[in-house]
Every structure is written in C-alpha cells, then in structure tokens.
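Annotated sample (chain length 202).
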Amino acid sequence: MTRRTQFRTDNRRTAIANEAARIIQEQGLASFRSAKDKAAERLGLATGSTRLPSNEEIEQALTERNRIFRGDDHPALLAELRRAAVAIMRALEIYNARLVGPVLNGTATDFSSIDLHLFSDLPETIGVTLDVLGCAHHSIQLRHQFRRGEAEQFPGYRFRTLDFDCTASVFSIKQRRRSPLSPIDGKPMPRAGIQEVEALQG
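Output written by the structure step:
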C-alpha cells in the first residue's frame, strides 16, 4: 500500500468513526456496528471496499465529541447518571450489583442506559425484587462472550427508575469473579461496585 493510499484509508476510517460517534451521540444508536454501517452509507463509502474503524476508534471519537460539543454539560450528565446508578445498586445490593458500560467509562450520552451486572442463581428473584421496588420491568436475553467468538445468552431485565432506563444482565454467583469480554476492546469488561462509583464523583 502506498503512502497516499494509506493516508486516504486512514482519512476514511477517521471520517466514519466521527460520523458514527455523531449518530450515537445525537440519535442514541447503541450498536457500534450499526452506527459504523450507517456512517459509511451517509458518507457514500461502500463498507465492502472500505476498512471500517474499530470499536475503540468509535469510543475515542465519542469521547472527543462529548468533550467538544457537550463541554461543561457532560460532567454534569455523568454525575447525575452515576448518582442514580449508586441508588439503584444500593436497592439491588443483595445481588452484588456492579456498574458497567458507558456510565462507568464516561462515554455516556443523553440516550445511555445505566448498565448493571447482577448475580443470582435464581434470576427470576430479581424480577420479584423489582416488583417490590415498584419498578416496571420486562425480562430479556442478552449476549455476552467469556471467550472470543463464543457468545452466550444470559437472562436480564430492562426497567426504568429515577427517570433513567436501566439494563441488567444476570450472571450466576460463581461468575462474580470473571467478567465477560468487552465489545469495545475484547478485554474483560470493567465492573465497579458502589464505593468505586461513588469515588468517581469526587
């Protein structure tokens, strides 16, 4: 590949990453893959002939967009989401609630849900607890990988409380010490307990 071709390829990747980040930030599209495809289409770049940016590049572009276009508003949004996350985690403390995803890593947008990992060998009891807490909810199935290329289905819940949408994946108790792989970088997904999330708020 010539230097000029490499430069052109890099520019296309950057353009797609920036457009995908804009779509995620402004439209709330959660799937990085869908955002990349949509960005390439909008830019008139065929995905088959263009090397798409990695999820890490999208996340970096999203971080930069939040810094540039949200300015002082973004830290306030993160603080509000994290305060709500702590309150929800306390209510679900019996399930060793852990925060994951955009609210933890700081890339959350106005559309982001509070993503949790809960641990129970009887997932249906979490639904009962949500009923007791007065949280309308519905059960879902979520895909996670503990090994590359081997996605598994896990039970979960979507619910709304404190004016925020929440998504909870439910793992067995023995999986507390082993985190699934992040769809961003393929490494074990960072998890944070209540005290760790409180520490992020200073």
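Annotation: Residues 41 and 158 are 31 Å apart (CA to CA).
Annotation: The domain at 73-200 is CATH 3.30.460 (Beta Polymerase; domain 2).
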